[in-house]
Amino acid sequence: MANGRETRGHWASKTEFILSCLGYAIGLGNVWRFPYLCYRNGGGAFLVPYLVMLALCGIPLFFLEVCLGQFSSTGCITVFKIVPLLKGAGIAIVVINFICTAYYNAIISYPLLFLWRSLQAHLPWESCDNSWNTARCVELRGTGRHVELFLNNSALGVSERYRTPADEFFHNEILQISDGIDQLGGIVRPLLVCDVLAWLIIFCCIAKGVQTVGKVVYFTATFPFLILAVLLVRGVTLPGALDGIRFYIMPQWDQLLNLRVWADAAIQIFFSLGPGWGGIVNMASYNRFQNDTKLDSIIIPVVNCGTSILAGFVVFSVLGYFSHQTGLPVATAATGGPGLAFITYPEAISMLPLSPLWACLFFSMLFLLGVDSMFVQIEAIVSSVLDVFPSVRSSKMLITAGTCFLLFLMSVPCVTRGGMYLVQLLDWYSASISVILVCIVEVIAVGWIYGCERFVRDVQFMIGRKVERFWIVCWKFITPVVLTFIFGTTILYNTEVSYNGWTYPRWAIGVGWASCLVSMLCIPGFVIYKLLNSKGSFMERVKDNLKPQDWGPADTNTRAVWNDHIECIQKGLGVRERTTK
């Protein structure tokens, strides 16, 4: 155990840890989800529930996971030594990551292909004069009649709707999309090449674990901020930009009485910061034992939220310009998800002078935002395996290569002609409630089973500072309540998945829910397995498996000091008890 940290590795500096966390937390959702949620849920008024949820759930949960990882110097499975009966939550995290990283890599292969196709004098989606365009393609820079046709789309059937050149380029050329998930069709070769290239880049960056990731993030985590700043300056200087920004931030205070707005704020904070995926625990496990986790756990979520707000200005300034150029209302142009990133924003960019330059910058940013998250999630999978089976740690590079290859094979169906339907299905269901359940189990394990008092004692020993009562109240009461609220509202407001007006068959929806249940069932499944393989009466088995086993600092010397520290505290309590008697 003395050499555990050396063989496992650690960050060369605190900066590497912070940049890795920022790269992990700041992802595609900051660009394509938050701005749309903000405008839809009351503009500037949305910031009230958003910041409240950040303070009461986001930051406390982030701090808890960082403390768990740093104190134990272990990954998302073995960290449940703190409550062995709930180790299934750690296994669930690995299952979730396996499913999600497979389809997520297909998503980040789209910007790579867009980037390649942008390296020419004129963007290929500027006009309707291409081999992939149909008779329903409409150039919005044309006459007012074209805009009128586009505005009347809602009255038309899916196949009869008018589409922009960017829409047809994305669906007909990039995706070569089929008519549904039951028609996966053949592999789209350009997407497969980009998928392979993305996996090779990811493997090269994580091949030696934190030794390589810690260096790569100096570029991958910072360059998107530079691009975002450039796009912001370009955006706010465009005609019509202020109209778009006004549309984005104009507060609608009556929306604060809407439960759905608070639910969206909580869900956005939760999925933006990324607790429950194992990434935060794993990254913190490579920290120096006495690192000040408290300050880190405030800075990173605040920067993450600030980036989301900044991205909204970048997006809506360009959408305002788009509205100014076409006469199309900003409300019609404002979308979220892949539609914003791969259709609406590219369409707006195509109207700019030097449009290929802005397209290259935008898609480079999207790729880097996505690839940073992949680093951490795959490293979480690999580290978890090595922590459970430390004897194979010397073969880490081989295991990393095998993991990437297996995930690549799993991603291949996502780059077929029907792959986008599969991506949307898995993205909609696979982690929608399972990650929230993992976090609920996590806070119950720490706050109620292991005990908040004992956990606070451990954290104070580690950082050498007092843990304020605010954190204790959050971990024990407020954060579990907020997580339960998120869990309930996610189920309450859940709607059946659809894509681009196409509805999924019942069997596909069943597959989607199965991708969610396969991870969630790991939790009760492991409880049953653990109880069946323990000795004693039922209650004895439960009690024994709720007690921490081999929990404590990984380093032998540090653990010895920690054990002495606990003894001193217990003796001190004993003296006071005898005195009162």
TrEMBL record:
Keywords: Disulfide bond, Membrane, Metal-binding, Sodium, Symport, Transmembrane, Transmembrane helix, Transport. Pfam families: SNF (PF00209). It is found in: Membrane. Its main location: membrane. GO terms for molecular function: amino acid:sodium symporter activity; metal ion binding. The keyword Cytoplasm does not apply. InterPro entries: Na/ntran_symport, SNS_sf. Na(+) binds at G23, A25, N30, S272, N304, L369, D372, S373. PROSITE patterns: NA_NEUROTRAN_SYMP_1, NA_NEUROTRAN_SYMP_2, NA_NEUROTRAN_SYMP_3. The keyword Membrane applies. One of its GO terms (biological process) is amino acid import across plasma membrane. It is a multi-pass membrane protein. Disulfide bonds join C128-C137. The chain crosses the membrane at residues 17-35, 47-71, 91-116, 191-210, 216-236, 257-278, 298-319, 356-376, 397-422, 428-450, 470-495, 507-532. GO terms for cellular component: plasma membrane. Belongs to the sodium:neurotransmitter symporter (SNF) (TC 2.A.22) family. This is Transporter. It comes from Anopheles dirus.
